[in-house]
Design goal:
mainly alpha; about 80 residues; elongated
Length: about 80
């Protein structure tokens, strides 16, 4: 089962992408592309910050860095890029 905080984060991302898709269809054509890029950049920044904060766990198995389901991010670096609901 998904934790409440992760569920809310997923919900916020889905709502954000849905609203920007609607805005892109009706008024601003580039906003959907920019929003998707911002989400991807935010998720990459979140993973990098998580790995940097827990580097000792990844020294022995560096390929586990790509196991994104194993951890989230501390809010500081990701909050600069990810949208807020």
């Amino acid at each position: 089962m998904m934790a409440v905080d992760r569920g809310l984060a997923v919900l916020c991302i889905v709502v954000f992408l849905g609203l920007t898709t609607l805005a892109g269809r009706f008024r601003f054509p580039r906003v959907s592309t920019v929003a998707t890029s911002a989400i991807v950049a935010g998720l990459v920044a979140a993973r990098i910050s998580y790995v940097a904060a827990h580097w000792a766990s990844y020294v022995e198995a560096p390929l586990s860095i790509f196991a994104v389901w194993q951890g989230a991010s501390p809010p500081s670096p990701a909050s600069l890029v990810l949208p807020r609901c």
